[in-house]
Amino acid sequence: MAYYPAAWGFGRSFEGRLGADMGAFLRSFAPETDLLLAARDDDGALQGSVVLQGPRHNGDGSDDDAHLRWFIVADGQPGMGLGRALLRRATGFADAMGYPMCYLTTFPGLSAARHLYESAGFRLVATSTVDQWDGGVQEQRFERLRGGEP
């Protein structure tokens, strides 16, 4: 919540949605199907995080895809390998769990993150005019097949 409002002008609706989504995830967190990683420095300050939300059964016989969420690295960490390590752990977890596909949503302008996603096997599959963050950005969906296959 500190980065996106300052860097991209996202407002209260972004913070409200983020808080609600995180709260719902934490209420339903299942360590046997979900991954929550938080990297901290020696003083305990948060330096990065990533979540892989495993598929959820819809009750109609179908499963959702795994969802990579809340991947961020603190200022001063870019280029240090922390983001790559967090992403590798998340995609490794997805592969080990046998999830056939995972996806993430993002927006244009986050070039370093996009480079990481693509190097981990994610591919841009859709761009939408939907602005789910109320910051004047276009939503992009990236998908990665199990094992990072294109």
Automatic annotation (TrEMBL):
Q: Which GO terms describe its molecular function?
A: N-acetyltransferase activity
Task: List, alphabetically, the Gene3D superfamilies matched.
Answer: 3.40.630.30
Pfam family, any one: Acetyltransf_1
Q: Which UniProt keywords apply?
A: Transferase
Q: Which residues are in the N-acetyltransferase domain?
A: 1-147
InterPro entries, per database record: Acyl_CoA_acyltransferase, GNAT_dom, NAT_camello-type
The protein, known as: GNAT family N-acetyltransferase
Q: Which organism is it from?
A: Roseospira navarrensis
